[in-house]
Amino acid sequence: MTEFFTPGSSDSSAEESSSISYDIAIIGAGPAGMSAAITASRASVSVVVLDDKPRSGGQIYRNVDASPLPDAEVLGPDYIKGAELTTRFRRCNAHHIRGVTVWHVGDNGEILFSDNGTTKRLTARQIIVATGAMERPFPIPGWHLPGVMSAGSAQVMLKSDGLVRDEAIFAGTGPLLYLIVAQYLRLGGKVKALIDTTPKQNYLHSMTELSGAMRAPGMLIKGVGLLNEIRKSGTKIVSFAEDLKILGEEQAEGLSYTRGGKEYSLPASHIFLHQGVIPNLNMTQALGLEHDWCKQQLCWKPKLNRWGQSSKSHIAVAGDSGGIIGADSAAAMGRIVALNQLVNLGVISALEGESEAADDLTFVASQQRFRRFIDRLYRPLDQQRIPESPGTVVCRCEERTVADLKKGFELGGREPNQLKSQTRCGMGPCQGRMCGHTVSELLANWRNQPVADVGYYRLRSPMRLVTLAELSQFTDVTPKAKKTEEVN
């Protein structure tokens, strides 16, 4: 067990004690980041949490303690229970810096971030990355048109502003898609159709993981309940849809699909797409952490041990940013990672860390077995991850199509960074966030090699756009005195 807690020597500069350094810096205030902060702040260490949102909660618990809805309970019990976690987080001793964007993390523990048009800096001996997940790109013809958004964006509108788009089409696969449709219907929204792309064969193939799924029967019942709720509403549901295309030239006008070899179409000016979530990689890649291609979840994710320890001794990754595990497991991993870093700091012993983390480690292992069932059942279609049509846009920032990338490949762009140089694909404001996985899989197909051999973009700081005006206003942030009372 001791190897999970032993820091390496390559990053020793990050562990040097400093009177102006925080002991632990946490980037992100979702379930993982909040839980890590609560756990770490109980010890005699200084903790800072950097969050790009004005309120804690991340995406899953967005605005849970300040919902614009008259009755936020319509969003479901899994959302409402986040209020307890956000309350505990607000009362803990962590220094919460909100509405800021981290754009550099150094091997010496330096963190630079933008705050209201200025650049600020702090240092930390240990760092936890808890930046969460993002929706998997859905590169089908027309997905770049106005009126097409991710289903997660539809949920953001619900949680942030209480807004719905009537007569929208929701298309794709996965439990989050069904949850968002159900939430729309509970708020009185009218959904034109749910176009489900879950392949028929997935139901059979997922049976090989049924034993793991039965370890979480409540999750299965919840999923079936959501689908029944949608059916009872009278919403049109189309199963086993393939070959999705957005209709329209300048604006989304509808969606076409095939089912059973026949083509169908539905008119709509708002279309929400979803085919699962993947780790938000920009920060972990820019930090130079080792990453692996996960065949189970069809995505890149940082290489971690069971304590969330990365390939750099002073950096750990918690929650969905280390691999998709769900909100409850993310919170558990936040606690596990925080205990690991307390051991690294010498605040508690390895034996104490093992003892305190035992229940959470068991819970996460159990949930990972359930996750294998979910990943198998809702494995997205190859045709909707790896576009074939030459005119399909891959890089939305630079408007680069499959044809553009294929030309760059033929000119020598055999790996993602070479292809970026040839085509500018991945050079836009999102820094490849929306095209990186698609590029890796396209190149793997064209090279006839595994995705793991192709690799991902090489990312560097700054991780976000930074203006010269921001750099001209530079201040340091140092630990604050602890609160006199702490609520566990």
Largest sheet geometry? 8 strands, mixed
CATH superfamily of the largest domain: FAD/NAD(P)-binding domain
**Percent of residues in helices:** 25-40%
**Shape field:** globular
Beta-strand residue fraction:
15-25%
Structural class: alpha/beta
What's the number of helices?
16
Unreliable segments of 5+ consecutive residues: 1-18, 483-488
Can you tell me the CATH architecture of the largest domain? 3-Layer(bba) Sandwich
Q: Any idea of the CATH class of the largest domain?
A: Alpha Beta
Mean pLDDT: 91
Number of domain modules: 3
CATH topology of the largest domain, by name, is: FAD/NAD(P)-binding domain
- The count of strands amounts to 22
Instruction: Give the radius of gyration.
Output: 23 Å
Question: CA-to-CA gap between the ends?
Answer: 27 Å
Characterization of the model:
Residues 398-471 form the SoxA A3 domain. InterPro entries: BFD-like_2Fe2S-bd_dom_sf (IPR041854), FAD/NAD-bd_sf (IPR036188), FAD/NAD-binding_dom (IPR023753), Metab_Enz_Cyan_OpOx_G3PDH (IPR051691), Opine_Oxase_asu/HCN_bsu (IPR017224), SoxA_A3 (IPR041117). This is FAD-binding protein. Residues 22-143 form the FAD/NAD(P)-binding domain. GO terms for molecular function: oxidoreductase activity. The chain has 488 residues and is of the alpha/beta class. It folds into three domains: 2-134 and 278-373, FAD/NAD(P)-binding domain; 137-275, FAD/NAD(P)-binding domain (3-Layer(bba) Sandwich), CATH 3.50.50.60; 389-454, Arc Repressor Mutant, subunit A. 33% of the residues lie in helices and 21% in strands. The protein has 16 helices and 22 strands. The protein has helices spanning 31-41, 77-80, 82-91, 151-161, 175-186, 200-205, 210-213, 217-232, 282-286, 327-344, 350-377, 402-410, 416-423, 436-447, 451-454, 468-472, and strands spanning 22-27, 47-50, 95-97, 101-105, 110-115, 118-129, 133-135, 148-150, 168-173, 191-196, 236-238, 242-247, 254-259, 262-267, 271-275, 277-279, 291-294, 299-302, 315-317, 393-395, 400-401, 474-476. The strands form six sheets. Strands 1, 2, 3, 4, 5, 6, 19 and 22 form an eight-stranded mixed beta sheet that branches. Strands 8-15-9-10-11 form a five-stranded parallel beta sheet. Strand 5 (110-115) and strand 6 (118-129) form a beta hairpin. The model is unreliable at 1-18 and 483-488 (pLDDT under 50).
